[in-house]
Design brief:
With about 260 residues, this protein is mostly helical. Helices cover about 70% and strands about 0% of the residues. The protein has 2 domains: about 1-110, Serine Threonine Protein Phosphatase 5, Tetratricopeptide repeat; about 115-215, Alpha Horseshoe (Serine Threonine Protein Phosphatase 5, Tetratricopeptide repeat), CATH 1.25.40.
Amino acid sequence: MGPGRQWQLGRAQRRYERGMQLAKEQKWAESEAALRSVTETRTAALGPDHQDTLRSRGQRAAVLRRLDRTDEAVAELNTCVEALGRTLGESARPTLEMRVLRCQVLRKADRGAAAMPDARFVTQALDSRPDELNFQASGLLGGILNDLGRHEEASEAFASQASVFDGLTGSLRLAAQQLRANHATTALYLGRFEQVEAVSRGMIASIGTLALRSPPRCALRRRTVWRSPCTARAGTRRPSRSHGMRWRTSPGSAWTGSAAPSG
């Protein structure tokens, strides 16, 4: 790869990051223009089936839905899923991630029936793998079933997927609690109040166990030192540890305000 192409791809990467930041700021039209430019550059430099090209196409499709261009967004995602499945395989993680993105777009466009095959495919591909992608697909599947009024199936889906995350720690354990909360909500729809109480008690017990496993914050530090949020600026003041609560200037600065209070 020549230096000219490397320069083009580096510039495209910066535009991609800018487009994603614009999407976070909900500036959809500007984000779409930036991502479209990135896709065109990567298509010319890397080819239409390269992962980076398809990633930018997928993110542009998500922005297109925000602009109420749902049909165009779905067409883009269909192309991405087909290309990734052909080059990497249907069960490859980039393909599954693109399926989840398409499922999200379809669900938000009130096309739950069309979104359900993607959610089922991903949860089956990641049957016993407790990771973030499986959590997203599991939540989408149960949510779609609830949207379609199939609360019995949604309840079973939430319960079975929550068991995948049992016994884990950190964010994945919280994922299990979120799925169980969705399970309890679905049981409430069905009027199964005893089931709601049982699931809720289990969640409370689990959260309490998690809290007990975490050491108190004071045990992590031998002493607490007071810090002002503005001590880095010149002309500010903070208490001196060596003289109780006497005020002194920050290192390298001189007190420029009114007289400092005496200790």
